[in-house]
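User: I want to check something. If I give you two sequences, will you return the structure for each one separately, not as a complex?

Assistant: Yes, each is folded on its own. Here is the first sequence with its structure:
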Amino acid sequence: MKDFTFDISTKILFGKDQLKNLAGEIKKYGNKVLLVYGQKSIKKIGLYDQIIKTFSENSIEYFELEGIIPNPRIDKVRQGVKIAKENKIDFILAVGAGSVIDTAKLVAAGALIENDPWDIVIGKAKVENALPIGSILTLAATGSEMDTSSVITNEETSQKLGWGSEFVRPKFAIMNPEYTYTVNSYHTAAGTADIMSHTMENYFSLNDGCYLQDRFSEGVLKTCIKYGPIAIKDPENYEARANLMWANSWAINGLLDAGKSTAWSVHAMEHELSALRDITHGVGLAILTPYWLEYCLDDQTSEKIAEFGYNVFNLEKSESTNEDAKKAIEALREFFSSIGIPTKLRDESFREEDLPIMAKNCMNNRKTPEINGFKHLLEEDVLNIYKKAF
């Protein structure tokens, strides 16, 4: 196990009656708020009205950045930065899912630099401070409410890139599972797959001695497998929604990869899917992951993949570790299929001619020309995985 520092400063306010604490948490940091949210969902469930009432009753001045969409765009970030600078915003409240929080993070950092905010994403501008952020979560998927990462799409350059800074870790997150009751079955399934993907990116590593972290990961995965289908079938099942929401946070807040070296192979490949075809992130991850595991399967990796099958899907151990690993991969594929996620890229309107373009972009958008994770991948390997998934 490698040396690590684990320090999560985000305050979690979890449960049905936590919105009462919103004003008090905001006023620790300021009194002039930029409210960042999506399209219509928070207004449909009445959350928007409750927030505005809280602002009014507590003399909190607010401005709005609305219309954030999945795979959030840099143009909205630029709009938010302009509002923040012109109105001397001192706090940002993100209300929604990961896309909204990711947008808020880049606005928070971009508001304190002279450069274009995209320069932060591509590494041309350094983040040395950021406006404080709080979040109210409405979807269990990305874990952005408790981490330091953000992913933004630039349509002009056809890039979807991640960046991160400790300065943009949210100060608090209000997490009421009831706010996720109206999430439809498709996005509940995609969110479940997203949580599982974050966990598996941390789990699939070799010879690191991180026994405890892997048992934590298996617990998160088993939680998703148990409660994802329940939430899809019974959207207002509080127990299911609560467990998924909490699993969402712990999948990516640094606990599961503490002491490990992880390369996040599937995320790098999926970002090219979203950049090219605007596919739902969790769906792209779920399509690619079983094919990635099949491609990675060899004498070095078979034991870890088989262990995944034994401990997550309760598969019985046989005399062949390699065969057990194959069964584990098939169990994962079958689970994703059972919650309504397609198993092929062609089912999401991808064309065969897209594959080499995405493979090339995948490596061009990296600082190094390879992915050195569970298995070392070059551009040719990424293309072969896309072909298997096509």
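And separately, the second sequence with its own structure:
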Amino acid sequence: MNTPSFTSWFQTETLWGLSLVSLALALAAALGAYLAMSLLLGVAVRRARRLAEAQGGSHRTAGVVYELLAGTSRLLVFVAAVLVGVGMLDLPGRWAARVGQLWFLALALQVGLWGTRAVALGIARYRMHHGLAAAGDAAPFSASATLLLAMLSNLGVNITAFVASLGVGGIAVALAVQSILGDLFASLAIAVDKPFDAGDFIVVGGVAGTVQRIGLKTTRIRSLGGEQVVMSNTDLLKQTINNYRYLQERRIVFQFRVPYGTTAEQAEAVPQAVRRIIEAEGQARFDRAHLQGFVENGLQYEVVYIVLDPAYNVYMDLQQRINLSLMRELATLGVDFAVPARTVQLAAPAGGPPPGGFLRVQQPATA
């Protein structure tokens, strides 16, 4: 006899204007929705993790999906389940509108979390690929700020004046951090355009050395003297950069002179001797050797050859051997190197005898 009375009481009793039956159905629906969503999310996360392990890395597609799903907020899943249950209730129009807004907020927050996580993963992958140092990022903050403004607008808040004030403040901040932003964009330009990478030997301005690290604001170079040179990325990109990373061979041009008085036969034999010297070197390829012209101090020759090894020490060793061999060949031909000389004519003193001749002064070469 108690059962029918309890059933009748359960069906007729109300709480906050809602029957206990509808409240019980809403609670059951919320519980079922939470269990179903948690189960589906768990299955999806496990499957994505297995695919990521099979692909061998968190930067593959399955790895990114796993990271995003693993970042799903359990609290927002619970809120969504509660909203499913609330949707089973017969609410007044004003409360129904509020439930719709809560749905938007929950979905927007979850999408924002996924988006922020995706941006963070993308930036981490970009840095790892380009060897950039880790630092704080403005992209997740910008996405969060945009999401917050959308949520406030959905709740009926007038954000026009707020956005306008943010714009004015943003201009002031941008002017204050102009140099920092310039270096930041310069670092992105270095990462995208890749004029050099860490480990490359570069010459920029008066600095020659190996790139150690490319940061968001500065690039650090270990110079030939051993010290570390820190250069602003903006100033670095404003200059011409010589990168020796892709250097495979060196084109060398050098000149020397022999004195006037060298016979035509001797002058003709000099380029042939130079050719024999360079062709005898296994790490060099002869290009040309010519009597270039008649200059102030003698006959000038120009020699061009290619060093087949990019190492600077190899080039210097080779040039030294060529110079020594050239000295021996010229000695064999009876030809000397030209020494800069100047002829000075002495004027006769007043009332004295005329000068006896000319004074020839030899000066050491300066080049």
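Because they were folded independently, the notes below concern the second chain alone. The chain has eleven helices and twelve strands. The longest strand covers residues 284-295.
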